[in-house]
Amino acid sequence: MNNYTTNKELQKEWNEYGVGAFVFEVLEKLKKKDDSCFNEKEELQALEEKWLEKLQPYGEQGYN
Fold first, then answer.
1. 61 found inside a domain
2. Is residue 18 part of a domain?
3. What angle do CA 33, 54, 14 make, to 5 degrees?
4. Is 19 a member of any domain?
5. Better-scored residue on pLDDT, 2 or 47
6. Distance CA 3, CA 8 (A)
7. Helices (H), strands (E): how many in the chain?
8. Residue 64 above 80 pLDDT?
9. In this predicted model, what pLDDT tens digit does every residue of 3-49 receive, in sequence order?
10. What does DSSP assign to residue 6?
11. Other CB atoms within 10 A of residue 14 CB
């Protein structure tokens, strides 16, 4: 991460444990629509909220 993250706890543990201690997964891909009302930013925010609620990545469970 080369000290580029704004999450100090994540950066500290990345430096301490290294890349091998972390897993990155795609949870869901945004399905774009050809609808003129489609707002990509709003749709991405909704997906983020959905997964934050579902996974609860706080405290010992994650870095949010």
1. yes
2. no
3. 100
4. no
5. 47
6. 9
7. 2, 0
8. yes
9. 777 889 999 999 999 999 999 999 999 988 888 889 999 999 999 99
10. S
11. 18
Looking at the structure of the chain, the number of domains it has is 1
Residue 20 belongs to a domain: no
Tokens of 54: 């579902």
Question: Within 13 Å of residue 40, how many CA atoms lie on the same side as its CB?
Answer: 4
Give the CA-trace dihedral at 58, 40, 23, 17, to 10 degrees: -60
Confidence at 55, pLDDT banded by 50, 70, 90: very high
Residue 18 tokens, joined: 């290294």
Predicted confidence at residue 43, as pLDDT, reads 93
**Chain-centroid distance, C-alpha 9:** 15
Q: Which domain holds residue 48?
A: 33-64
